[in-house]
Structures are given as C-alpha cells and as structure tokens.
Design brief:
Keywords: Membrane, Transmembrane, Transmembrane helix. The protein is mainly α. The protein has 4 helices and no strands.
Length: 123
C-alpha cells in the first residue's frame, strides 16, 4: 500500500484541527516553561520551591512540554498536504510526545497519591 493518496493536498477540514491544537499546545508550552523557569530560578530563595512536590511539578511540566510539542508535527503534516503517512515514520516523529504523555500521566497520579497520603496521614 502506498503512502500517497490521490486526494493529497491541503484541505480546510484537515487544516483547522491542527491549527487549534497547535495554538493550545503553544500556550501550554509557554506556561509549562514558565513553571520550570520559576521553580529553577527561585528554588534557593523560597522554601516552598525546595520541596519534593515543587520538584515533581517541575518534572511534570517538562513532560507536558514534550507531550504538547507533538501537536506541531500534526500541523506540519496537515500544512504540507500529506493526508496519509507511514506508521514507522509517525512513530519516529511522535515518540517524544508519547513518552512525555505517559510520563506526565504516571507522574500526575504519583503526585495525587503523594498529596492524598500527606492529607490523610499528616506528620
């Protein structure tokens, strides 16, 4: 089966969703980058940013940046008019986003459990 289709080309119905996702991803990348920047820059000045929770939130923000950067690949493919792409190529292009997504979900669940234990069994 060929990766080319007879109706390849830039079409509006294939272009609108990646534009919206990329816009939301861009905002998310900016905000998560600011979380990482503020935590790293001010961690020695504020005791709140020295905690394990603040460090875990920073790592979670980093993984979310990886995850959200995958939206731009979707936009590039749509703008170039490629409606079908080979599976091995898309896995190669999206592996960082997939790793970021699953790592962020795992870390978020770990943070939730940590906060639950902190509230349920205060020291």
């Amino acid at each position: 089966m060929s990766a080319q289709s007879s109706d390849d080309g830039t079409r509006f119905e294939f272009l609108l969703p990646p534009i919206v996702y990329s816009f939301v991803g861009f905002i998310g990348i900016l905000l998560n980058t600011s979380v990482c920047y503020i935590t790293i820059k001010y961690r020695k000045q504020y005791s709140t940013l020295k905690t394990n929770t603040a460090i875990l939130l920073t790592i979670n923000s980093f993984f979310e940046i990886l995850h959200q950067s995958g939206q731009f690949i979707y936009l590039i493919i749509a703008v170039n008019g490629i409606n079908l792409i080979q599976l091995n190529k898309i896995i190669l292009f999206q592996i960082h986003s997939i790793i970021g997504m699953f790592s962020a979900v795992f870390l978020f669940n770990s943070l939730s459990f940590d906060r639950f234990l902190g509230v349920a069994f205060p020291i």
